[in-house]
Amino acid sequence: MDFGKFKYESALKAREARRNQQQTVIKEMKLRPKIDPHDYETKKGHVVRFLKAGDKVKVTIMFRGREQSRPELGFRLLRRLSEEISELGFVEASPKQDGRNMIMVLAPHRATKAAAVAATAAGAKPGREPREDDGAAPAAAPAETTVE
């Protein structure tokens, strides 16, 4: 067998295998235990956006000073976040204390990830709903009125 032909075919197989691979992207969101409700909603919105895009999210709660003696506050916050986003994703790694930080990993459901991949293939930005003004739709003409 020709060695050049063998090398060429193995390179084709390797290129095809790389094309079918899926990149896992892990986004990180950092919180504090005493977070304001509005700030929490903003951060939760970012987590929702990441999960809709099909990315995993690493949620980190940073403890400072005396907060380290109250890890249940961070645990409660992470549990609340996981319950609120349960329709988009699931807890892949449960909350665990790592020094000054508490870490939890969220992953999107398979259907969410498949939808994000399909949206990316179609050319739309993942995690974003199409708006009415997207595309080249003409403006609606005013309705004609008849006066009698």
TrEMBL record:
<feature type="domain" description="Translation initiation factor 3 C-terminal">
    <location>
        <begin position="25"/>
        <end position="109"/>
    </location>
</feature>
<dbReference type="InterPro" id="IPR019815">
    <property type="entry name" value="Translation_initiation_fac_3_C"/>
</dbReference>
<dbReference type="InterPro" id="IPR001288">
    <property type="entry name" value="Translation_initiation_fac_3"/>
</dbReference>
<keyword id="KW-0396">Initiation factor</keyword>
<protein>
    <recommendedName>
        <fullName>Translation initiation factor IF-3</fullName>
    </recommendedName>
</protein>
<feature type="region of interest" description="Disordered">
    <location>
        <begin position="117"/>
        <end position="148"/>
    </location>
</feature>
<feature type="compositionally biased region" description="Low complexity">
    <location>
        <begin position="136"/>
        <end position="148"/>
    </location>
</feature>
<dbReference type="InterPro" id="IPR036788">
    <property type="entry name" value="T_IF-3_C_sf"/>
</dbReference>
<keyword id="KW-0648">Protein biosynthesis</keyword>
<comment type="similarity">
    <text>Belongs to the IF-3 family.</text>
</comment>
<dbReference type="Pfam" id="PF00707">
    <property type="entry name" value="IF3_C"/>
</dbReference>
